[in-house]
TrEMBL record:
This is Sporulation domain-containing protein. InterPro entries: SPOR-like_dom, SPOR-like_sf. Pfam families: SPOR (PF05036). Residues 63-141 form the SPOR domain. GO terms for molecular function: peptidoglycan binding. It comes from the Bacteria.
Length: 229
């Protein structure tokens, strides 16, 4: 599973909050929002949403299908907590699907570009990457502040492929391992569903669910407004 459940374990050294990432699904004006991803604590992202419009090239239907994105929300330490969050989302008209993470891998693999000299430099690089249809986020806090997040992967081989591709394109990348604790629960949402949730709502959820994170991944068959699992 690709960006699989990137951070989808309870990271033992994390005091994380949340991130609501950009969407890859084209909007009516074919724009892509700029998101700053904050990272605090020794291991995990602690994030806030700071959107800004970024132009994006038109893409073919096949490219969009291959690049289909969804969001995963969690981790939850029990199925009951995940169920509670799922019901709260449902009350807002947001469909989601619950899954548990029982993968044997002990680590997730975070591909990133090391911190740049300033936030402005990081945003310029982010625009450059997004202009090439590379999903990416600016890290706004912690030891990797002003770096660029390029995705979190459950499989090391997937992280290495992404890192190698960007290295060949002339970008300096690093891979950071994040320890994962198995048997956690997550909710998957289609991007269009997540767009129904305001920044203020995400902040409230982050306050109520300790360590809540929202990350983007490639996915198939995620619940939409017409189906809830």
């Amino acid at each position: 599973m690709n960006t699989g459940y990137f951070a989808w374990g309870t990271y033992q050294q994390s005091q994380s909050r949340y991130v609501k990432p950009t969407v890859s699904e084209p909007e009516k004006q074919q724009g892509k929002r700029l998101v700053l991803w904050s990272e605090s604590g020794k291991n995990l992202p602690r994030s806030e949403l700071l959107p800004e419009p970024v132009e994006r090239n038109n893409r073919s239907a096949s490219e969009k299908t291959l690049d289909a994105q969804c969001l995963v929300v969690g981790p939850f330490g029990s199925a009951s907590k995940a169920d509670d969050m799922q019901q709260r989302l449902f009350s807002l008209g947001v469909a989601s699907r619950e899954r548990s993470d029982n993968e044997a891998s002990e680590y997730d693999h975070w591909v990133h570009i090391p911190p740049l000299a300033s936030r402005e430099a990081a945003i310029r690089l982010l625009r450059e990457l997004q202009g090439q249809n590379i999903d990416s986020f600016v890290i706004t806090q912690g030891e990797l502040a002003n770096g660029i997040s390029l995705g979190l992967f459950s499989k090391e081989v997937s992280a290495n492929k992404v890192s190698s591709r960007l290295l060949q394109a002339g970008y300096e990348t690093r891979i950071k391992q994040l320890a994962r604790q198995p048997q956690t629960y997550w909710l998957e949402l289609a991007v269009k569903e997540a767009d129904k949730i305001t920044e203020g709502m995400w902040e409230r959820f982050a306050d109520e669910y300790n360590g809540l994170k929202v990350l983007e991944k490639n996915c198939k068959g995620i619940a939409s407004e017409s189906s809830i699992h």
